[in-house]
Write a structure and sequence with these properties.
alpha/beta; about 40% helix; 2 domains; about 300 residues; single chain; Rossmann fold
């Protein structure tokens, strides 16, 4: 059953689009891009956040200037004596921030890599209360411009979608991400499906959905259908690890299944039982991602499960 705020939102859009579908679509897109509160929700989230904050105290924070605002990047230099020279970028998902990915970041650093954890705009220590795929991709490209070419990048949820857009030259004015290897964890592959799901959730009619799409094209600079990770994977043809839990209730497993057979360089890891958020802290997932980004063979597609 829809929550009370959602019922109110649906009612408001129903009334608004009777008067102006165009205005309803424009407002809906702004709501779609509005980022949630940065404060942890619930005791467990607060505990995880505080642990992550303490771990990141050792990091050097760099503020990256963007076309709108700035993004904060947290550098965790390696402590391994025999440094392997690898540099890895970690990108969080919608409503998350660097602190929630500290298990993953430290696990990657244990391989001898230098790790950069990025706060996307509207999240963590970055500015603003708005985020779309274009500005997210710009933040990722800005991180690579500042720190140098990344050997590997891992993105969770929305962050994974943004990584693919950054790598795939979806936004021509942005220099493409050059990272040699990409790992996606619980990430949507079709932003068109996400877009349509949101429009359905808030009860938009056809006219308002069209206006919402037009507004997205106007502000982001790409058709919603072009924001597709599978199309990018075909173009760039780089080693790609797709990690997903078949029980993920936030990003359905179909998004990961769409990558099956796309390229011989694509691997799948089904981390069942970890859902959408716990998956980034699962030791077996961290180990698999670390191994892949460190250069484990990805010449053949595999379908492997961990639990």
């Amino acid at each position: 059953m829809p929550s009370f705020p959602l019922k109110v939102t649906r009612l408001a859009f129903a009334q608004l689009e009777k008067a102006s579908p165009a205005l309803a679509g424009r407002i809906a897109f702004e709501l779609f891009c509005r980022t949630p509160s940065r404060r942890p929700k619930g005791a467990k989230a607060k505990q995880v956040f505080m642990v992550g904050r303490n771990r990141l105290r050792q990091a050097q924070t760099v503020r990256l200037a963007l076309s709108r605002g700035m993004a904060a990047a947290h550098l965790l230099p390696t402590e391994t004596v025999g440094k392997n020279g690898h540099r890895i970028l970690v990108v969080h998902g919608w409503g998350s921030r660097a602190e929630y990915l500290s298990d993953l970041a430290l696990g990657l650093r244990q391989t001898g890599a230098e790790v950069v954890v990025l706060d996307l705009p509207g999240h963590g220590a970055s500015s603003g209360r708005r985020l779309d795929l274009r500005i997210a991709a710009e933040a990722i490209v800005a991180a690579e411009r500042h720190f140098g070419r990344f050997d590997g990048v891992v993105g969770h949820s929305f962050g994974g979608a943004a990584v693919m857009m950054a790598a795939g030259s979806v936004f021509p004015e942005l220099k493409p991400l050059q990272a040699a290897r990409i790992a996606l964890i619980g990430s949507p592959s079709s932003m068109g499906e996400v877009f349509n799901g949101f429009a359905s959730m808030v009860g938009l009619g056809r006219g308002s959905v069209g206006a919402m799409r037009n507004r997205a094209m106007e502000l982001v600079g790409a058709q919603v259908e072009d924001l597709d990770g599978v199309s990018v994977a075909r173009r760039i043809d780089r080693p790609l690890l797709v990690v997903h839990a078949e029980d993920d209730k936030e990003v359905n497993v179909g998004h990961a299944q769409r990558y099956i057979g796309v390229s011989p360089h694509v691997r799948h890891l089904w981390a069942n039982g970890h859902g959408h958020r716990r998956i980034v802290s699962a030791p077996e997932v961290i180990a698999a991602v670390a191994s892949f980004l460190a250069g484990a063979d990805a010449s053949a597609q595999v379908d492997r499960r961990v639990s």
